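Annotated sample (chain length 125).
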Amino acid sequence: MANRGPAYGLSWEVQQRIDKQYDPELEQILTQWILAQCGGIQPPEPGKEKFQEWLKDGTVLGKLINSLYPKGQGPVASTDPSNKAFKQMEQISQFLRAAEQYGIAPTDIFQTVDLWEAVREAAEN
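Output written by the structure step:
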């Protein structure tokens, strides 16, 4: 995770709004869908931090986007886990490029560093 201190003032207020919008039920629905789609992967423990950690290395995301294509034709070349930050971030980037090619609007796609460093942006109301 990024080396950041606690939020104060407006940053704290924004973070509180973001935290209130987190939906544990949606997390469970997404987890179940990913597990059903990919098969053979371990589910995360419940909670937004654990869910983020589950996705952080790009392995699950790579397997997910590859599962939407015929076997052997997935856009993410390697879905092997890695302990190296640059490899993890590259897998996330491959997923994001593939998601855009699949039809996800660029405005709906997060930045690699946002997932990797657990950055949460304020949702518009």
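Annotation: The chain has six helices and no strands.
Annotation: The chain has one domain: 9-116.
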